[in-house]
Amino acid sequence: MAIDAAGNEDFDRIFREERSAVHRHLVFLTGDRSLAEDLTQETFGRLYSRPPAEGLRNPRAWLLTTASRLAYNHARGEIRRRERETRVGETVLADVDAVLDVRRALDALQPRDRMMLLLRHSGFSYAEIAEATDLAPGSVGTVLARAQRRFREIYESRMERE
Question: Which CATH number fits the domain 9-84, given the four candidates 3.30.56.70, 2.170.120.30, 3.90.550.10, 1.10.1740.10?
């Protein structure tokens, strides 16, 4: 039996006769009626848009094989998605921990050192930092270097303790 892409009586008959069997099979494989319905539609969509070139001698076998492959592909995709989400979640947690470590080290600094670092890392120029902190413009680099050194020492000592 041939199914043409234009759709014909054979496709309609196969759909009516086999839809329930394909859906039951997919519910059994996935355990999810809604997903099974989506995959059933996709299975028949493939039959309609890409019928087997050699013809369709056993429609139920072709449909159940196609449905099974779609279900397994979906399951593999879900596993990969969960693994990705887990990795992203772990990365986010690691990023949050790193941010907290930086925040704790900043909090341990003297207020002027903390302000110097925050201004510089917010994109302020040395002249703008000098104006905001009432420092001589020529002193900003020295004071900033000391603040960076103190921050690094505090941060590294905290990391060694953990």
Answer: 1.10.1740.10
